[in-house]
Amino acid sequence: MAWPTKPSGTMQIARRAEPYVTEAMRRRWTDEVLPKYATRLGALMPVLHDVQHAYRHVPYQAQLEVAQFLGISPSDVLDTVSFYDEFTVEQRGVVTIGVCHSIACEQCGCGSRALLDRAAERLGIGVGETTDDGTFTLISMECLGSCDTAPVALLNETLHENLTVESLDRLIDQARTAPAHGGHH
Ligand code: FES
Questions:
Q1: For each of the chain's 185 residues, which pLDDT tens digit applies?
Q2: Which atom of ligand 1 approaches the CA of 101 most closely?
Q3: Which of 11, 111, 138, 144 is buried most, with the most CB atoms less than 10 Å from its CB?
Q4: Which CATH homologous superfamily contains domain 1-91?
Q5: pTM
Q6: Beta carbon of 159 within 6 Å of any ligand 1 atom
Q7: Long-range contact set of residues 85-88: C-beta below 8 Å, sequence gap at least 24
Q8: 95-184: which CATH topology?
Q9: How far, in Å, is the centroid of ligand 1 from the Cα of 56?
Q10: 153 lines ligand 1 (CB under 6 A)
Q11: Is the CB of 95 under 6 A from ligand 1?
């Protein structure tokens, strides 16, 4: 979920020695991203996307590094991270389940409410939360552009269509046992 408050001047920022913004990221942004945008502020979204994707969150230190790289103010970065649900300050689970809650998905088939309730019950977390073992985050999302196959949900970047409570159950089971996620089980 979006971070609700702005840090004051006295806020302590957790720091680690190793920067979040890697040399490879800088190179890619310089060569491929910046040339596409008229201003450095314009490149902020794709840059933040890379950071969120790499670390499953954009911690404050990373926000400062991004601001420095782009030569923009840290508050611009913070505003963007806070505004878009795509970006989080807290680390998301290995698998983010994003159930669409917009009108078609709300109304079609079993409906998004039943899907969200079922996932919350299976995972033992509320919407917007991450399981203690760091495997799953459950979120509710705006229209994913697939209304004709509603209800739908994203598991990370993969869209699953025409969902039922049972098919969502199976997806959760598969994600839990997938080798890539085995270390977190
Ligand atoms: S309402 Fe769910 S994809 Fe459009």
A1: 555 555 556 667 788 999 999 999 999 999 999 999 999 989 999 999 999 999 999 999 999 999 999 999 999 999 999 999 889 999 999 999 999 999 999 999 999 999 999 999 999 999 999 999 999 999 999 999 999 999 999 999 899 999 999 999 999 999 998 755 544 33
A2: 2
A3: 138
A4: NADH-quinone oxidoreductase subunit E (1.10.10.1590)
A5: 0.78
A6: no
A7: 85/1, 85/2, 85/139, 85/141, 85/142, 86/49, 86/52, 87/48, 87/52, 87/57, 87/58, 88/1, 88/3, 88/52, 88/56, 88/57, 88/58
A8: Glutaredoxin (3.40.30)
A9: 24
A10: no
A11: no
